[in-house]
Specification:
With about 350 residues, the chain is α/β, with parallel strands linked by helices. It contains 13 helices and 14 strands. The protein has a six-stranded parallel β-sheet, sandwiched between helices. InterPro entries: HTH_LacI (IPR000843), LacI/GalR-like_sensor (IPR046335), Lambda_DNA-bd_dom_sf (IPR010982), Peripla_BP_I (IPR028082).
Amino acid sequence: MGTLRITEIASQTGLSIATVSRVLAGKSNTSAAARQKVLAVARQRGVMEDLANGRFLLNGLTIFAPSRAFNVRSDIFYYKVIQGITQAVAQHDVRVRYCELEEVDSDASLFLEKMNQKETDAAILIGIDDPHIHQLAADLSKPAVLINCIDRSMRLPSISPDHLLIGQFAINYLFQMGHRNVLTLQCLRRYTMDLRMRGIRDAWKEQNLEFVDANHQIITEGFGSAEAEARVAAFIADCAPDDRPTAILAGGDFMAAGAVKALQSAGLKVPQDVSVMSMDGFNLADINDIPLTTLHVPRDELGAEAIRVLRQRLFEPRSPCGNLLLGGQLITGSSVRRIKHSAKQTPVYQKIIYD
């Protein structure tokens, strides 16, 4: 049956059986025009459904991302996402190419130049927030998938961590461990971090607890440990012992490391005096020999899911676009301890009921 279908496709497209076979096998030594002819007829004859789990059917993939994403020292998260993509296509005959593109005010001419090259059969855009780039990608005839960003015109599929739920879950874990006076240490560099912060604030409201910015939040410029250490040290120095937080929720492992160092410099022990939890969990398994409690934010999985969605777009280009949100995974270490909270540590909203 497979040979018969290849013969029929070859006859209908005017191409050789060898060319049709190479296209359906996902080989790179075929032209874009031949590939389009074969895939169009294959869809009509239902061949694509049989291939969906075993073929990728493209030769060249271009990854667009901010410049920092290509340097492990600048942005280890995006760097690992890109590694996840390359690993997902390693078993296929696909050449991966890279292009630096900034998050906003992106170079549209550079984007179009790379997308219109014959070596680009499809694209993955990581962390690109420019709506003009999204529009251009959607208007082109080549499939594109977004990672950790969203096309608000709903024309491109996207895969992202569920930042809102991740924020809610992390703070709720600390609430379940008895903590009420929790200091949140976050960098709000992108709207994705704003979503995490919104989830954290929502969880406080759900617990009928009052979130006071001056008491429960430190906003940093970046995710580094040095800045986090300095900001936490200053915060602890200004706190009366009774007002000191019982836990710190950090936006990343390096921030958590800075917080631990600041606490230890102040003569406080982790977790005996103050617990520390991170929302990252890939970079540091422990801090100063303290196994870190963390919520693993999906990272390597983003690349694998993007390739899966991209493959679906190749087989079903007119299928509806959606936004796939991936949840995190809680890893419990010894940096967070359970405590008994007192009424003094629990500021609540006053609910007034009118008859």
